[in-house]
Structure prediction request, 141 residues.
Amino acid sequence: MAAVINDNPTMQDVLHQFYPKYLESYTPAANQAKTAHHILNCKTGAYGVNVSHCGECGYVRFHNNSCRDRSCPMCQALSNELWIDAQNEHVLDIDYYHIVFTCPSELSPLIYCNQKELYSLFFHAAAETLMELSKDPAHLG
Prediction:
C-alpha cells in the first residue's frame, strides 16, 4: 500500500498503513486483533449501510455503519466528549494533582497475563500508599 500523506491522519489511516507490516513480525492478542479489525473496517460499509432518501427531491445518501467498538476513536469521540462534560459537572473547585505509580518493566509480561488480579493489587497498593502519605503533614506541604 502506498504511503498516504494526510495532514490530519486518523487511527484508521495509521492502521491501514502500518498494521499489515506489524502482523508480519507480531501476533496481537485476540482482543487487540479484534479492535484493530473493527477500527480498520469502521464506516467503510463492512458493517452495513443505511440509506436516506428524500421524498421531495429524490436525493439519496448512503451512510456507512460504524463498528461501535469502545476503543474506536471514530465511534467514541462524541460519547467521550459527552461523558467528560457530564463528569466536569461533578468536579469540585479545588486543586487537583496528577500522581503516577509505575511497576518495574520486568513485571510487564506477568501483569499482562494476569491483568485482573495484578491491576487490582496494584491499585489497592497505590491507594494504601496515598492514604498513608496523606496522613503525614510532611507530605502535604
In short: Residues 16 and 40 are 7 Å apart (CA to CA). The chain has a mean pLDDT of 90. The radius of gyration is 22 Å. The chain is about 50% helix and 5% strand.
